[in-house]
Amino acid sequence: MKKAIDYLCWGFVAITIVVMMLTVISTYQYIYIAYFNNYYMVEVFLAITMLFWAIKFLTWSELPKRRLYSLFCFCVASAAIFFRMSKVF
Predict the structure, then answer these.
(1) Residue 60: left (phi > 0), alpha (psi -120 to 50), or beta?
(2) Between 2-27 and 40-59, two packed helices, what is the crossing angle to 10 degrees?
(3) Selection from 76, 41, 12 nearest residue 4 by Cα
(4) Mean pLDDT of all residues belonging to the chain
């Protein structure tokens, strides 16, 4: 289970990086990509990534500040979801 969460975390980090690059490319109008001309996709993938990292930090037993790191990731995910629901993009 820990390995699966670890792979999902790093997979979503890679996907989020690609989404951010495509958003920057589309926002500055180098190429037009319909889904990436605003920050909707960045907010969604950032929230998913941070939720997975919060779960990962909670499952690490050897990390002394695991609750603090998990709370920070959860707060970032909550902020991204809040901005998405507020239609800030």
Answers:
(1) beta
(2) 160
(3) 12
(4) 91
DSSP-assigned letters across all residues of 15-46: HHHHHHHHHHHHHTTSS--GGGSSSHHHHHHH
Q: Which of 70, 35, 30 is nearest to 53 (CA)?
A: 70
Residue 86 CA to residue 75 CA, distance in Å, equals 16
Helix (H) or strand (E) holding 86: none
- Say if residues 89 and 43 touch (Cβ distance below 8 Å): yes
pLDDT single digits (tens) 19-31: 999 999 999 989 9
